[in-house]
């Protein structure tokens, strides 16, 4: 029995296997790098959209810190990006979590300028009902842009930081009050935190570049879930809240205002 052809065939198969594994490894490494770069560019674009034009001169993804203030910022840890123009502070951009969105937590980007005004607010991730609560998404409506840009902790006064149904100045959506109500509260609480800690937040040493995530694709509810959610949201509109907010809302405050 001749073994040479068998050995040759085995060698050829082995060579192809090694080459295939190597090709997959190289492709994977190249793809990972491109994915990371795309994610970085997506986040930078979002940050640049909510700071004054032309003032983003540093790398805010590297000039970042993390804090743990769940009572005001929603999550156990919150990333904060610092935007600077040379030595001049331009904006603090926080990623608070709205824990009590109608269909689950909502991740935000909130830009606070050195004078205490909002450079802008954007939604990074949500699971709100299509056609109702999802109007918080800038791709669906301009609500999140026109309602918050230029506002501050004193403009409007604290007692007016509510949706109109609750005696405030912020628009709600027809058939959907829970979602905008929760976002208004979260943005106010974020402003409160920055007002208390601004100097320290700019001065704290940076952690360096991290894995900044671009917004996830919003969850699309099933037609049955959408119909039921629409009914539940409409029912919620029958129970306005009127409590004034001179200080940040606590869990107890929210429970009393539901």
UniProtKB/TrEMBL annotation:
InterPro entries: FMN-bd, Ion_transpt_RnfG/RsxG. It comes from the Bacteria. Its EC number is 7.-.-.-. It is a single-pass membrane protein. The modification FMN phosphoryl threonine is found at residue 177. Residues 236-245 have a biased composition (Polar residues). It is an enzyme of class 7 (translocase). Keywords: Cell inner membrane, Cell membrane, Electron transport, Flavoprotein, FMN, Membrane, Phosphoprotein, Translocase, Transmembrane, Transmembrane helix, Transport. Residues 207-258 are annotated as: Disordered. The complex is composed of six subunits: RnfA, RnfB, RnfC, RnfD, RnfE and RnfG. Belongs to the RnfG family. This is Ion-translocating oxidoreductase complex subunit G. It comes from Thiorhodovibrio winogradskyi.
């Amino acid at each position: 029995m001749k073994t040479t052809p068998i050995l040759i065939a085995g060698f050829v198969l082995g060579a192809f296997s090694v080459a295939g594994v190597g090709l997959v490894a190289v492709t994977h490494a190249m793809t990972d790098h491109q994915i990371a770069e795309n994610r970085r560019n997506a986040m930078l674009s979002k940050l640049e959209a909510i700071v004054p034009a032309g003032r983003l001169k540093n790398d805010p993804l590297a000039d970042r810190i993390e804090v743990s203030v769940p009572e005001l910022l929603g999550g156990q840890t919150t990333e904060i990006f610092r935007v600077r123009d040379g030595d001049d502070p331009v904006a603090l951009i926080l990623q608070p979590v709205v824990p009590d969105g109608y269909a689950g937590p909502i991740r935000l980007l909130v830009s606070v300028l050195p004078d205490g005004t909002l450079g802008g607010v954007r939604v990074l991730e949500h699971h709100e009902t299509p056609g109702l609560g999802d109007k918080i998404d800038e791709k669906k409506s301009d609500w999140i842009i026109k309602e918050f840009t230029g506002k501050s902790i004193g403009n409007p006064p604290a007692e007016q930081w509510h949706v109109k149904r609750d005696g405030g100045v912020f628009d709600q959506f027809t058939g959907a009050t829970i979602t905008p109500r929760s976002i208004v509260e979260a943005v106010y609480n974020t402003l409160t935190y920055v007002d208390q800690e601004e100097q320290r937040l700019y001065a704290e040493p940076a952690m360096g570049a991290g894995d900044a995530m671009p917004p996830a694709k919003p969850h699309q509810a099933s037609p049955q879930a959408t119909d039921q959610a629409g009914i539940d949201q409409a029912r919620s509109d029958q129970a306005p809240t009127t409590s004034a907010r001179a200080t940040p809302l606590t869990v107890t405050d929210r429970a009393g205002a539901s």
